[in-house]
User: Which sequence fits this backbone?
């Protein structure tokens, strides 16, 4: 039996236990031989998540919302958009204006998602958590060896978005998009229990990659990782030849239904994750941080 998933809550300064959507199913799928065979052969294929996503976008899915809100204690007063037309409409709900201000200090990197964070000063082949060594290298995450060179030996922030979380992701600083690409792959769960059994998930799941040149933190590799039952990764910010610039706090995109992950890689010597995030990561524990709060410092 896997241990409960615990994380450090920055807001309450306490260790909290995560409520996992579909807990029994996740444990069985990734903790048993039969479940692992089923997820490898069928459930991790894209069409399964796409079909499930169609249901989540249908009017029939609205009946799930009230129970979901009660079970996971979601404060709807923070969000706009109700009533919702489908579960996916609820899932991608937006915060009300001003609910999540972005840190204004230009020396501080803003949290790009409201999520549970892991932080590393340097990613290399000796990194053992949360996934096995080589799978945390820049080459494996980006899917292009040439693109990885600026980030080798640099810092990393890994933000895991649970199904109960706000599922939009934002730009952490002013800047412009240099280039972007899609890395095809499967759609495994990104739950820590799944990672325990399949350490390569972040390097084999489908990913959307953007290389950002930021005003205060140098070049960033911004990686959105798809997951089991995530119907789509949607890019809200449309990049064109005439418009590649963005501002701190602007929405970059969102995930349709399912738990997901955003990973940000930095160049060596440009910034350092906050001490509390590093400390909790060393304890093999994630830190919950609110969207827009400060999570790293320019060097």
Assistant:
């Amino acid at each position: 039996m896997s241990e409960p998933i615990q994380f450090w809550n920055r807001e309450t300064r306490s260790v909290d236990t995560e409520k996992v959507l579909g807990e029994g199913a996740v444990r069985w799928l990734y903790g048993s031989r039969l479940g692992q065979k089923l997820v490898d052969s069928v459930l991790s294929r894209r069409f399964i998540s796409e079909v499930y996503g169609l249901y989540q976008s249908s009017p029939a899915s609205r009946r799930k919302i009230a129970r979901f809100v009660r079970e996971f204690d979601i404060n709807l007063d923070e969000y706009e958009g109700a009533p919702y037309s489908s579960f996916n409409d609820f899932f991608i709900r937006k915060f009300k204006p001003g609910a999540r201000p972005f840190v204004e200090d230009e020396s501080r990197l803003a949290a790009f998602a409201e999520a549970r964070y892991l932080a590393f000063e340097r990613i290399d082949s000796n990194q053992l958590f949360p996934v096995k060594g080589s799978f945390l290298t820049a080459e494996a995450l980006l899917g292009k060896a040439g693109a990885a060179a600026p980030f080798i030996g640099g810092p990393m922030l890994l933000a895991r978005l649970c199904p109960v979380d706000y599922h939009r992701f934002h730009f952490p600083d002013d800047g412009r998009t240099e280039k972007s690409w899609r890395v095809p792959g499967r759609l495994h769960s990104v739950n820590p229990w799944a990672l325990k059994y399949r350490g390569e998930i972040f390097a084999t799941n489908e990913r959307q990659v953007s290389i950002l040149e930021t005003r205060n933190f140098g070049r960033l590799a911004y990686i959105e990782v798809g997951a089991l039952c995530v119907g789509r990764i949607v890019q809200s910010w449309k990049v064109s030849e005439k418009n590649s610039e963005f501002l701190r706090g602007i929405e970059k995109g969102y995930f349709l239904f399912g738990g997901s992950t955003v990973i940000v890689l930095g160049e060596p010597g440009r910034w350092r994750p906050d001490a509390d995030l590093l400390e909790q990561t060393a304890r093999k524990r994630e830190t919950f941080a609110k969207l827009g709060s400060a999570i790293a410092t320019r060097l």
